[in-house]
Amino acid sequence: WPPIPYSYDRSSRPRIARPHTVSDRVNHLRDKPASDFFSSLLILSMVAALQAPVILMSQNRQASRDRLAAALDYEINLKAEVEIMALHDKLDRLRTDRIEAMIGAQTVQIAAMDTDLRALLADRSGSRGDDAVRRTETGR
Asked: What is the pTM of this model?
């Protein structure tokens, strides 16, 4: 913005004379020579030309950092997947061992129950056999 002109009132203190409308500001800008606008445009374009390579280099560096971070993330995920697979295998082995132990215990229990049942049936069949002999002897 252009400098704001000062005016003096009766007390000799500087008072800022401010334009009251936007059109006053625009008219004030029209009074400036065109060379000032061209020089400011030239300065801005030179600054942009100097900033462009710096911005591109920083973007390239950021892209390389992102690629490195992605590669590290991939390696970490791969290691985690291998660890998870190892844990699954370990759990499967533990389950298999537990099931085999349960089957072994059930086999022992079934064998013991079979022995007890055979002994019980043998006792009953022996006593029935005696009853059957007595019935035939008595004629019933």
From this structure: 0.43
pLDDT in tens, 66-90: 999 999 999 999 999 999 999 999 9
Measured between alpha carbons, how far is 32 from 54 in angstroms, rounded to an integer?
34
Q: For residue 10, what is the DSSP state?
A: T
Tokens of 80: 């985690």
d(CA 56, CA 27): 40
Instruction: Convert the pLDDT of each residue in 75-134 to its tens digit.
Output: 999 999 999 999 999 999 999 999 999 999 999 999 999 999 999 998 888 765 555 545
Burial degree of 43 (CB within 10 A; 0-12, 13-18, 19+): exposed
- The span from the CA of 39 to the CA of 32, in Å, is 12
Alpha helices in 3-33, H assignment, sequence order: 22-30
Alpha carbon distance 128, 39 (integer Å):
128
Reduce the DSSP state of residue 33 to 3 states and report it: coil
Q: What is the largest CA-CA distance in the chain?
A: 157
Phi–psi pair at 17, nearest 5 degrees: -90, 110
